[in-house]
UniProtKB/TrEMBL annotation:
InterPro entries: DUF2961. Pfam families: DUF2961 (PF11175). This is DUF2961 domain-containing protein. It comes from Paenibacillus lignilyticus.
Length: 369
């Protein structure tokens, strides 16, 4: 990541494109009308984007999901980066909160300042855009894009990619939601068939990180799912096979506390019953990238044997040779909305149904089987 900053390299020029007021005044922002796309940077030649900083002011409180960031390298027409803006920088669910890691951050005040330090090389031009898919304008959009101009960047330098995915996972096992075997004995899962897929890449490169956003409608621990990596077309169980979601995120024993390491952590956790609600986990493979030469299929169970209904969304980050396969169509903004929050009244209704199913005895406590 540091890229030998002590090395003197003639011929490299440091540049910036920003939203500064061209008149010399203090209106250092652009506005992006509803439904329009703004070119933040269109850069000719070869170079490396070194840092991106963004902050926005908009009447749409869900603008972090309703604005989409895209990046194109070397004149390509299909983006190498496509994600809702907030999710890309490490703020899930369209919410505002602080997030700290080495390559990405959402900085104070209250996570309103987005930062990205992933180096992004290009050999023949770069374009970075924001599409405002909101019904309202982005009133104030401030940004820096810091980059280097190089005499050349070889094609062997992998190009940066990021892809957002989202799925409301269905319960696969016939016995239903039975994490920890609470309801019934759990089955085995010798396949990736029903897993949540967060990367499906064709080409040569290395996987370097994931932001993982999970909204859990129930109080049961969401994280018994194993991560599974199939490299270069290999069969299950693959070269890398995990032991549980919290293990994949370098933690242990069902954590539910905010923790920030440069490479991994929990930027957001719920304060409800058990693990009910919205959690943001992250893991960056900066010292231990996952390398592939032909393809990479990366997935994770949603509960052991895919036994839980969850709202999962992720941004995967990797470098690869071009060309890349085009991403699936980004879901429309209506399909990116959060699921309704499950709260106290919902839990009380569950209890009421349970009481009725158990004869409505006046002294039923809640732990009777």
């Amino acid at each position: 990541m540091l890229n030998h900053i002590s090395k003197i390299q003639p011929g490299i020029k440091t540049k910036r494109i920003s939203s500064y007021d061209r008149s010399g005044g203090n209106a250092d922002f652009i506005s992006i009308p509803a439904g329009e796309t703004a070119d933040l940077a269109v850069i000719a030649g070869a170079g490396i984007v070194k840092h991106i900083w963004i902050t926005v002011n908009a009447p749409d409180k869900f603008i972090r999901r309703n604005a989409v960031i895209r990046m194109y390298w070397d004149g390509e027409t299909e983006p190498s980066v496509e994600s809702p803006m907030g999710d890309f920088f490490g703020q899930g669910f369209g919410e505002e909160y602080n997030f700290a890691s080495l390559p990405l951050a959402a900085a104070p005040v209250n996570g309103k300042a987005f930062n990205c330090y992933f180096p992004m090389p290009f050999g023949d031009g770069a374009r970075i855009t924001i599409e405002n898919q909101s019904a309202e304008p982005i009133t104030n959009f401030y940004y820096y894009i810091d980059f280097e101009q190089h005499p050349e960047i070889p094609a062997s330098e992998g190009r940066f990619h990021a892809w957002w995915n989202r799925e409301i996972t269905g319960v696969h096992p016939q016995e239903g939601e039975t994490e920890w075997g609470v309801v019934a004995p759990q089955g085995k899962n010798p396949t990736t068939e029903h897993n949540y897929v967060f990367a499906n890449i064709v080409g040569s490169g290395q996987f370097v990180g994931i932001n993982y956003y999970v909204d859990n409608p129930g109080p049961m621990w969401y994280g018994e799912g194993d991560d599974m990596w199939l490299i270069d077309g290999e069969d299950w169980p693959g070269s890398l096979h995990g032991t549980g979601t919290e293990d994949f995120f370098n933690s242990s024993w069902c954590p539910n506390e905010v923790y920030a390491h440069p490479y991994f952590g929990y930027a957001k956790v719920p304060n409800k019953l058990g693990w009910m609600g919205r959690t943001h986990c992250y893991r960056f493979f900066l010292e231990d990238p996952i390398r592939f030469e032909k393809s990479l299929h990366a997935s994770i169970e949603h509960g052991h044997d895919n036994s839980l209904t969850l709202d999962l969304s992720t941004v995967a980050y990797w470098y690869q040779s071009e060309p890349h396969h085009p991403f699936p169509a980004l879901p429309a903004k209506e399909e990116r909305a959060n699921m309704p929050e499950v709260g106290v009244v919902d839990v009380h209704r569950w209890r009421h149904a349970w009481r009725n199913a158990n004869g409505s005895k006046p002294t039923l406590w809640g732990n009777e089987k």
